[in-house]
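Bug #77: duplicate submission created two jobs. Keeping one. Sequence:
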Amino acid sequence: MNNFTDKEIISWNDRLFEHQMNVFIKPIYDNSTINPNIGYLVNMMSVDPVNNWAKDIYKSERVVIEPRLKYIYNFSIKKSLIDKYNEILNIVKSIPVATNSISNDKSKRTLDTKNLKIKEKVTEHSIYKEDYFLYDIELEGLLGDIMLYIKQIEDALNFLSKKPMFKIHDVVSLPNDRSMDYLVVDYIYTKVANTYNIDYKIAEIISSEAEDVIRYGSNRITDEKSLTWSRTQRIDEVIE
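Kept job's structure:
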């Protein structure tokens, strides 16, 4: 599951400050899940800034209707990383999301980015002596759906910024048993709370020499700290 954290939900109050919606966005919990839902509450400070200056807006429980708005988002990606970004974004979008949107009648609405009107313009430009693609995105729809759309992009960008030590198709070993070699088959993108991790799917190499068909044994998922370089691959590199 790729659910919103409290921090991600609350951060939208700063993002939408200029929109002046008089709404405070807050994580709301219920008995059916351990994950927060997105709630939209009256911003008491904006209702009466004179008489309510000492009130804690986090304690407001008057839920209002989910806002509908237009939101503009833009970013640039290095030209050489576009294909990798699109690959990661597709993976992130395929991960289910359990976070719901709660409106004024206390009913839950499943977030769905397909409900959004999206205008996306991509142009090439150069900055800092590097070539980039600029994404200029205009979104229109319910706030919860916009939040999910932006979250998926930012999750992909955060994964993209991480540089794995081992590449796909590298030959690696386990530190406690370097007699066995494994092939890095794929990356596994995981997010725990606000931490982004890239784990490795590896397959045990059964074949001991260059044959017409290389056979593999068991597969496992492991983190980077649990892997080391294969002595076999290092020797082959020196010989070459």
